[in-house]
Structure formats: C-alpha cells, structure tokens
Amino acid sequence: MAEPRVGTTHRSPHDGRSPRRTLPRPNVENAAPPELRRFTEHSLRLTLEVLDGRRPPAHLRPLLTKSVHDLVPALVRSAPAGRRLGGAILTRIHIRVVHADAAEVFGTYNRGGRVFALAARIERGKGAHPAGWAITSLQIA
What we know:
The protein is α+β, with helices and mostly antiparallel strands. The chain has helices at residues 34-51, 66-69, 72-77; strands spanning 89-99, 102-111, 114-124, 133-140. It starts with 33 loop residues before the first helix and ends with a strand. InterPro entries: DUF6459 (IPR045596).
C-alpha cells in the first residue's frame, strides 16, 4: 500500500466553474394559448386579492369550480401564509398545457419581500367564465 503524499495538489483542467448547458428549446406545441394565459393571470391575481381580504369571494365564482369556490371562505379565515407581511403580488406564472382542454399552472407571489408559491389545474368547459376555463384545483403555500 502506497503512502499518501502530503502537500501535493490535485491538478485538473477544471477551472472551478460549472459547464455551460444549453437550455432545451420550448415546445411550441405545448405553448399556452393567449386566452389561457390571460385567464390564468387574471384568475390568480383575483384569488390572491380575495385571500388578502381586498375582494369578496363572490368575485371568484365564475373563475373556480364549485368545489374549489366552496373552500375559499375557509382559506380566507385561516389567514394565508405571510398575510401579516402585506398584500400578495403575483410575480411569475408557468403554464404547462396537458392537452387542449387542461393545463397545469405554477408560480410565485411576493409578500413583504418574501416569495411564496402557488399551483393550480385549469380546465376548459368547467366554469362560467366566457372563455370557458375554470380553476379545478388550487394550492397556495
């Protein structure tokens, strides 16, 4: 068994930086249609305003399915995460189209300099909104 050499340094061509990776090109077929993007931004902003107490829950009725809308008053009473930090501001959303009539959404919102997450599933044909979209599942962290 060889004795380890003390004081030797390991030499390699690596300069300490991670290799640059090329990002995959966005799947054009999976791109969200503009009306879905508008509905998503609008409905999530209104949802955050309702959870903050800045709007009544009735404003969400055409945007949510009945089962999700029925949970909103309980969410308002339970004081969403960080409410004491100030009003929620939607900052980013990402939409993944599952098929022509469904999409999965996730995003972030800020409260008082802190970042929080949200996620939803949106389906066409489930709501009273003129575009036909509705939030069928919602998670706010």
